[in-house]
């Protein structure tokens, strides 16, 4: 069975919270029941796995390049992300990822809290991601993610924002009232 021919969207409710924790390399050390339910993976299949086990091929690599750049600088990251389930369905989330600091102020991992993304957020980011994927294809595997990330940051500035975080938070807050029910 082809992953794309039968792919269906899994819808989150406004109250669903997906929570995971990873180590500094992005390997899952904790997954809440909602993550297991939505992703359709059992806990034993998730723990120790790279979090990109749920990465959807529609997601441009430049988004994750920006995410890791942001996180390793000790800042939190916000994004609208499309993920894959174990059964090759998909779900969209508004994600907030924050560094987890040890007592010595060294980053020891990351917490990720995801919730329902609005239709408006999904439509807006789908168009941006399509452009980013095109840029990645044009620039190849090595330079593609950086070229797409640069395009994204330039796009955000052209929209009048000083940061990607400001853009994504503004998009999210503007559509709080338009979430699916």
Describe the fold and architecture.
By secondary structure, the chain is of the alpha+beta class. The chain has one domain (18-178): PAS domain (Beta-Lactamase). The chain is 41% helix and 22% strand. It has helices spanning 33-39, 43-46, 61-72, 119-158, 164-174, and strands at 18-22, 28-31, 77-84, 90-101, 107-116. β4 and β5 form a beta hairpin. α3 (61-72) packs across α4 and α4 (119-158) runs antiparallel to α5 (164-174). The longest helix has 40 residues, at 119-158. The two termini are 31 Å apart. The mean pLDDT is 93.
How would you describe this structure in keywords?
alpha+beta; single chain; Beta-Lactamase; 5 helices; 5 strands; 181 residues; 5-stranded antiparallel β-sheet
The fold-level CATH name is Beta-Lactamase
**Which blocks of ≥5 consecutive residues have pLDDT under 50?**
none
How many structurally independent domains? 1
Strand order of the largest sheet: 2-1-5-4-3
Q: Could you give a short description of this structure?
A:
The protein has 5 helices and 5 strands.
SSE inventory with pairings:
Layout: E1 18-22, E2 28-31, H1 33-39, H2 43-46, H3 61-72, E3 77-84, E4 90-101, E5 107-116, H4 119-158, H5 164-174
Antiparallel strand pairs: 1-2, 1-5, 3-4, 4-5
Helix pairs in contact: 3-4, 4-5
């Amino acid at each position: 069975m082809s992953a794309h021919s039968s792919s269906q969207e899994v819808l989150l409710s406004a109250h669903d919270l997906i929570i995971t924790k990873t180590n500094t390399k992005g390997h899952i050390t904790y997954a809440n029941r909602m993550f297991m339910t939505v992703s359709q993976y059992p806990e034993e299949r998730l723990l120790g796995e790279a979090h990109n086990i749920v990465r959807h091929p529609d997601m441009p690599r430049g988004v994750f390049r920006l995410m890791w750049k942001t996180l390793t600088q000790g800042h939190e990251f916000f994004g609208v992300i499309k993920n894959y389930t174990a059964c090759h369905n998909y779900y969209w989330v508004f994600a907030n990822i924050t560094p987890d600091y040890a007592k010595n102020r060294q980053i020891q991992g990351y917490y990720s809290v995801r919730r329902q993304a609005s239709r408006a957020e999904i439509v807006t980011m789908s168009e941006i991601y399509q452009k980013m994927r095109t840029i990645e294809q044009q620039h190849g595997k090595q330079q593609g993610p950086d070229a797409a990330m640069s395009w994204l940051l330039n796009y955000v500035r052209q929209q009048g924002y000083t940061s990607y975080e400001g853009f994504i938070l503004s998009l999210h807050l503007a559509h709080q009232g338009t979430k699916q029910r």
